[in-house]
Structures are given as C-alpha cells and as structure tokens.
Amino acid sequence: MKLKIYISLLFSLLCCSLSAQQAELSITISKNKLGLNERLKVEFSINKQGGDHFTPPKFKDFKLVAGPSQSVSQSWINGRVTFSQSYTYILKPNRKGELIIEAASIELNGDIINSKMMKVVVTDPIDIPENPNDPEYIANQNIHLVAEVSKLNPYVGEGIYVEYRLYVSENVSVYDTSVTEAPQYNGFWNQEITIDGYPVKMGKFNGENYRYIVLQKALLVPTKTGNLTIDPMKMDIVIGVPSGRADFFGNIISRNIRREFASPKKIINPKNLPLNGKPDDFTGAVGDFNFNVSLSKEVLKANESSQIKIDISGKGNLKLFELPTVKTPSELEKYQPERKENIRVNTDGIQGSVNDTYTIVPQYKGKYKIPSVSFSYFNLREEKYKTISTADMYVDVIEGKEIEMSSNSSSTGNLEKQDLISTTNSFRYIQTKTVFQSKETVDFYDTNTFYLLLLLPFLAIPIAIIIGKRNEERNSDLVGIRLRKAEKLARKFLSEAKKQFGKKEAFYEALERALHNYLKAKLNIETGDISKENITQILEEKKVDVETISKFIEVLQASDFARYTPVTNTEMNKEFEKAREVIVQLDKQL
C-alpha cells in the first residue's frame, strides 16, 4: 500500500515538473550560410509533452531531401525533469540569396504554438571533392584561424584590439599547434596582452557552433593614416579527422594530418584627428586624461631646491605624446626633468600615469611667478578636443641676495644690463713706477731640485714594479679584457648614433644601422634582408641567452616605432644606453 502511495506521489511530482515548464517550439539549423550545392539540417523541438498535429513550414525555395525524422528524449537530473520531442528535415536550397524558413506550428492542449522564422544566406556553389571524406576537405570545413579586430576605422592615436582565434568544430580533434609566422604590425605602436592559459570557449562561426581558443591578443595604436595591413598569423596544426571507416565495435577511426592555416589579412584605415578646434598646444594625446601641476615648496631660501611636478593620468595613448613644459623666470635655475611612468596595458587599454619632475633653485631673494601650464587632448567619447589649464604658482624666496633693480626694471625681478660708472680711482691698482733690485746667483748643485732629480731614478724603480704587477693582473683578467673590448666595440659602432643625438629620425636610423653593422661584422652575415625572427634564430644557434636576444630585438623594434612617434631626449638617451649594454652583453657571449 505504501509503495503505491510513493509511486503515485512520484508520478504527481513528475507531472507537476513537466507542467511547470513554459511550452516552446524552437528551431535549430546546422548553418546560417551555405553554398547552393550544400545541404541544410533543420530541427524543430517542443519541450513539453502532449503536443499533437505538428505542421511544418512549406519550405518555399528549398527542396526536401529527407524527413521528417522524429525523436523523443526525457531526463530527470537533480529533481529537474526535461523533455524534448523533435522533427528533423534535410533541405537543399533552390536558389541563391537570403531565404526564409517560415514558422512551424504544433497544437498543445488546445493552444497553437509557433516557432520563430529563420533566415539563411545561400551563396555560389562551393568546391566539394568527389570524396566527401577527403581529410583535406574535412580539415578546411572544420578548422578556421581568424583575426578579430575591434575597429577598422579608428582615429590616429586611438587604441584598437586584434584577437587571433582558432575555431574547431566538434567533428575533428586538434592534437598539436605551433605558430610558424607571427603577425606584423607595421604602422602601429603595439603591445601584446598576456593571456592566462588557453581556456576553451564556445561560440558561433558562420552561424554554426564551434569550440575556440584565443591564441594571441594585442593592443594596436595607429601612428599614421592610410591603409595599414595586419599580416596573417600562420600555424601548423595536427588534426584528427574521421576517415569514414569504423572499427569492430563501431567506433569511428580517425586519421591524423598536418596542415598549415593562415588568418586572412586585415586592412585598417585610420583617419586623421579633426582640424576644427585643434588647440595650438596639442601634441597627440588621445583618450580621457586628468592633468595636474604641483609645487613641492612655495617658500624657500636662495640656493634651496623645490620640485615642480607635471602629472598626466587616465586612459589613452600615454606613451605616444609629449608632456607640457614649464616656463620659469630666469632667476629660478631649472634642471632637466626626471621622467617616471606607471603604465599598464591590459584588455581595458593603456591606463596609468606619466609625470615629469623639474628641480628649480632660486638665486635671489624675491617673489616669482610660474605661469599656468595647459594640456590638450582629444576625447574619443565626445569626439572633440579638451584643454585643462592650471593656475599660476608663486615661489617666495625669503632669504638671499637682493636684486639691484633699475628704475625701468620689470616687477618680475628680471635683471637688466646697467652702464659701468667710471671714477678717477678706477685704475689705482695699476703700478706706474718700478724699482730695480739685484738678484744673487745660486749654485744649482746646492739646490733641493738637484738632489730630488738625483733620487728620482731610485724612486721610479719600485713604482715601475707596482705598475708592472698591476698590468700583469689586468692582462690575466680575461673577463675584464672581454668587457673592455666589448665597451670599445660598442662605442665604435654607436659613435654615429651619438653624433645624431637630438635629431629623432637620424638618431634612430643610425642606432638601427649600428646594431645591424655589429651583427654583420661579428657573425659575418648580411642583415638587410632577414627578419627579426631569423636574427633570433641565428643568435640562439650561437648560444646567446634568451634575455640578451630579447633586449636586442626590443631595441630594434623601439628604433622602428620611434621614427613615427614623438620622443624626448631622455628617451633617446635611454635607448642609446640600452643599445650599448646589449652590444656589450652580446660580445661577451659571442
């Protein structure tokens, strides 16, 4: 009796669960885009029992190849009941264009439930091999390497993203991948974004369900207008494709093949920033920024220092524009600024802050005005220029020498030239009379100089011995000899770049030429026609450590990008020191 009650209760719960579901007639198609000679699978599913009198659409513009085939499935997982009854059709399009699959309907408890309509794009016939089980054909149909670009028509200086995805259908398996050619970003400042692992995600490609992974993601900032090409990424992939045969137990037998895939080229067409409303002090900042100028000490003594800090923070091309400069009165001695950067590049773009710190030292007592500083940038969200100006600042020097002001001196304390006043006693220090005095002759052999010269050879002997020992130790220090030779070699190759210091394009051309000439002389290779990847391979074969190779390539890339971006003398000096250091390290290892 109790068993019957339990069964009745269980059946009631099952019925309640099924009745609680919202009845829905859904439609699923195998692909949204297909060739005129391909076939399409269409499936209608009702998620509730009791459906009757299913009415399919007329499938206008399609030829019915097979169907309907019906199937029913029901499951109960963690107290939740699911039900599905499906009707499947195989169709072949009759013409090209956008074809509509009209709504199907089914009667359920006296109500009529309709499915949604679906649009399908039919293109020209595609090449289908005589053997549809050809592994090459299966691989082409089921694996796609694509480059997704966030924006094709950005402003110059606006950051965009490129993401390389590998789409793999559930019909094949991937066993091994390797990138054979990395993409090039000529005309862009670029920064690769670190990806934590390679998680497999689900997504749509051409309207079909695919698994995909993100292989590489980079932030690109165009530095000029025109059609800029992002070259393809190329990969070798080992794929397991079904062979069309099955083993004794009915399992599909797969065959492994290796194929090269390449992502399509992407053309980016950056546009110039608008000329209308462009401020005179605009230096290329694009984004959304905050601007601040601060003075560490406003009251100080003469020869005591104070710091003026210019700080720009926010989101945008923080590495690609010049910071405003501070103008100070001539009585305040101003030193070259110290640059500090705290910049992060991630999926949200370039964020952080850049600041210059000037040290000023007053020479005279007085109160001096530091004029206001302005900073202009282009706001992408509002698509217009914005200017931020700071207030005037004052330095009060309370102790020190007084400035002698003439009647027409300016109130800012600037010194002016004054006429020299002559008096009758101006030249009183010049003697006009002389008195002759006799001088006694002293014998040279009785002087201290004679005895000092006599002892000099005896003193030179121990000094020569000490110097000889030091030279012997110096010559036995092989590491020191290598380092000195490397330093001399670096100075030799970088001498031309040093002469061009301050001239941006000439400096970076000379710097890049110095690095190439060094490789040519050291390794006896021609570097004009080889890529950075080949240079990396050659240096790896010479057993150069990875860190040194990476620094060498970084200097080459910096030389390339810096020609199209504004740089300061401080940055040029840093790149020069990097180049000198990397030549020294390479020479020691080679």
Name its key features:
five-stranded antiparallel sheet, 4 domains, alpha+beta, Immunoglobulin-like
Describe this entry's structure for a reader.
With 590 residues, the chain is of the alpha+beta class. It folds into four domains: 2-123, Sandwich (Immunoglobulin-like); 135-268; 287-399, Immunoglobulin-like; 478-589, Four Helix Bundle (Hemerythrin (Met), subunit A) (Up-down Bundle), CATH 1.20.120. Helices cover 25% and strands 38% of the residues. The chain contains eight helices and 30 strands. The chain has helices at 2-20, 135-142, 448-476, 478-499, 504-523, 532-541, 546-562, 569-589, and strands at residues 25-29, 33-35, 40-46, 51-55, 62-77, 80-93, 97-101, 105-108, 111-114, 118-123, 143-149, 160-168, 173-181, 188-193, 201-205, 208-222, 228-230, 234-246, 252-262, 266-268, 287-295, 299-301, 306-316, 332-334, 338-346, 349-362, 366-370, 374-379, 384-389, 393-399. The strands form nine sheets. Strands 11, 12, 14, 15 and 16 form a five-stranded antiparallel sheet that branches. Strand 28 (374-379) and strand 29 form a beta hairpin. The longest helix is centred in the C-terminal third of the chain and has 29 residues, at 448-476. It starts with a helix and ends with a helix. The model is unreliable at 13-20 and 406-430 (pLDDT under 50).
